[in-house]
Amino acid sequence: MKTNKYCLILLLLISISYSCIEKKGESKDLYAGMDDKTKTRMQQYYRQGKKLYLTHCASCHQIDGKGLASLYPPLSGADYLMKDPVKVACIIKKGISGEIVVNGTKYNQPMPSLDYLTNIEIAEIITYISNSWENKSTLHEVKTVESITKGCL
Ligand code: HEC
Q1: Which residues are near ligand 1 (CB < 6 Å)?
Q2: Domain extent listing, the chain
Q3: Nearest atom, ligand 1, residue 67 CA
Q4: Is residue 22 very low, low, confident or very high in pLDDT (cuts 50, 70, 90)?
Q5: Does domain 35-150 have CATH number 1.10.760.10?
Q6: Where are the beta strands (DSSP E) in 5-150?
Q7: pTM for the predicted model, two decimal places
Q8: Is it the case that residue 97 has pLDDT exceeding 50?
Q9: Looking at per-residue confidence, does 3 or 83 come out higher?
Q10: Distance separating alpha carbons of residues 40 and 36, to the nearest angstrom
């Protein structure tokens, strides 16, 4: 009987720690000030965005968004991204090359174009990266991304 009780406590502890791991990464006030409808959309965008980020971006920018040495710039806490997150839609769509400065550090490696990603996928990715790690922004709608990507050079 005694062993069973311990097993139960152990199971409880395991499930608590799992729920902690699951929450890790989401900004605390992800849904602050949002009505229920927006919150639901935000949840969908964020979850999808995370999956897409892990598939298409994390190999260079890393799972924790911190980038890699002087090769790949960080996204977490990045002034370049956070100045106007939705503007990076064109970088995702068309790639970028030449020198750029992120948080005072110079980077100069080409990022390939990921033009197989659709506007909705880009909106989800931008929503995810601008609301993860050290970043806090808002929901970035597909409509806004659409109007930005129309104007990419
Ligand atoms: C093959 C590696 C690679 C992949 C994959 C990649 N990037 Fe990049 N990314 C780079 C490099 C290198 C730069 C810096 C470009 C330069 O120096 O001109 C960069 C720059 C950026 C920047 C602007 C600088 C900053 O840190 O804010 C953003 C934003 C960005 N990438 C987002 C993404 C997103 C989102 C994805 C996935 C959809 C992605 N990247 C996929 C290599 C990559």
Answers
A1: 56-57, 59-61, 72-75, 78, 80-81, 88, 91-92, 96-98, 100, 102, 107-109, 111-112, 114, 125, 129
A2: 35-150
A3: 26
A4: very low
A5: yes
A6: 100-102, 105-107
A7: 0.86
A8: yes
A9: 83
A10: 6
